[in-house]
């Protein structure tokens, strides 16, 4: 078993604390994505796990094997952890075969290189040099070189960042399949939510030097803990609601909850844009809105809507529709389950959209008109 376990990991660059107690668990053979904004410490986390950068506190273990338990720190070359940097960092003077077989004992080198060339789909290119390869091919060589050492854990630092969108999608799927075939536990860092959602078995959202939430892509997308995680995973409508044990009472009508609420009260619920439905006629729970932006995106249409009566709603609602919406106004309702979300720790109190700054009442989320007096 060689799942990764990271507990309370802290690290700094000079006097700046970058990792402030990271907890991360990746099961044996699983693919994990660490997702976070630029500069939040993702690369630093990988470099500490790889043993290239010292931890100040915390523990890192691969299965039963401690890599760093605060008392004993294994040197990088003994960790059995592979690292693929953003640019691949191939040796320019070596051929593809030379790069892949670099650290492999001579007796096994030929067979190993042939096996890895097939695994990453580069059969026949063994005699080329890196400058004779496309960006995607170079990244595949970098992956093969990292796998040649048969690591128990592979760390990938934004390996697709330099590639165009189509190649990125293709290579991402190929690399995920390759890692699954090899049964290698892997951690990929990215700031691209689509990449994380499509690549990972588990996603960890990193913020302020910690993991804000970790879970399956489905869980993080549909049931984020707070508004920042909700927004980081995709567009979200955050709607004021009176929350009961099993319902959210909103201006868009009563909605079931994704899970029973622990406490009643006023708060926010999240509705993803595909949960808003548009209609030309008023109906129960539907509010009137003006379309302020309408874009065709190939697979769907993305609309921005301004509610006519704000009612504490966000100034802009976002809806995705499968069919074109050609009118300049709509009645907006909601479908599916609403998910209660809190504000992230340390964030400024929310102000109702219609309340000027000077009148903000931080402890109160507006009560939707639909539930007043009900
Ligand atoms: N060698 C270094 N010396 C000093 N500060 C550094 C060093 N490397 C990174 N930092 C700082 O540490 C913070 C985290 O950097 P890191 O590269 O880990 O972030 P990241 O989330 O991987 O960013 P990106 O997505 O842009 O690659 C940043 O503020 C960065 O400026």
UniProtKB/TrEMBL annotation:
PROSITE patterns: ABC_TRANSPORTER_1, ABC_TRANSPORTER_2. It comes from the Bacteria. InterPro entries: AAA+_ATPase, ABC_SmlMolc_Importer, ABC_transporter-like_ATP-bd, ABC_transporter-like_CS, Mo/tungstate-bd_C_term_dom, P-loop_NTPase. Residues 4-233 form the ABC transporter domain. Residues 334-374 are annotated as: Disordered. Pfam families: ABC_tran (PF00005). This is ABC transporter ATP-binding protein. The keyword Magnesium does not apply.
């Amino acid at each position: 078993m060689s799942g990764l376990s990271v507990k309370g990991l802290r690290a700094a660059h000079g006097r700046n604390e970058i990792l402030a107690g990271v907890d991360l668990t990746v099961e044996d053979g699983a693919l994990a994505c660490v997702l976070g904004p630029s500069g939040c410490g993702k690369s630093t986390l990988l470099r500490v796990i790889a043993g290239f950068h010292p931890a100040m506190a915390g523990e890192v273990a691969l299965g039963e094997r401690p890599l760093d338990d605060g008392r004993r720190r294994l040197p990088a070359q003994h960790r059995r952890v592979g690292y693929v940097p953003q640019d691949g960092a191939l040796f320019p003077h070596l051929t593809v075969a030379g790069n892949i077989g670099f650290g492999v004992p001579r007796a096994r080198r030929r067979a190993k290189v042939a096996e890895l060339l097939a695994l990453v789909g580069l059969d026949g290119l063994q005699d080329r040099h890196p400058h004779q390869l496309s960006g995607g091919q170079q990244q595949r060589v970098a992956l093969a070189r990292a796998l040649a050492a048969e690591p128990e854990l592979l760390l990938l630092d934004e390996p697709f960042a330099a590639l165009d969108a189509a190649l990125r999608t293709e290579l991402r799927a190929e690399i995920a399949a390759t890692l699954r075939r090899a049964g290698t536990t892997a951690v990929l860092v990215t700031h691209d939510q689509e990449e994380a959602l499509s690549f990972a078995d588990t996603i960890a959202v990193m913020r302020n030097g910690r993991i804000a939430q970790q879970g399956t892509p489905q869980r993080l997308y549909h049931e984020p803990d707070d508004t920042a995680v909700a927004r980081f995973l995709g567009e979200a409508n955050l709607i004021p609601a009176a929350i009961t044990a099993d319902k959210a009472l909103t201006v868009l009508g009563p909605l079931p909850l994704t899970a029973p609420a622990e406490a009643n009260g006023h708060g926010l619920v999240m509705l993803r844009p595909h949960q808003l439905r548009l209609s030309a006629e008023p109906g129960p729970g539907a509010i009137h809105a003006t379309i302020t932006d309408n874009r065709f995106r190939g697979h769907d249409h993305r609309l921005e809507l301004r509610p006519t009566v704000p009612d504490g709603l966000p100034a802009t609602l976002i809806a995705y529709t499968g069919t074109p919406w050609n009118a300049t106004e709509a009645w907006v309702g909601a479908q599916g389950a609403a998910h209660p979300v809190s504000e992230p720790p340390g964030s400024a109190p929310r102000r109702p959209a219609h309340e000027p700054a000077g009148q903000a009442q931080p402890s109160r989320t507006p009560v939707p008109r639909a539930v007043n007096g009900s």
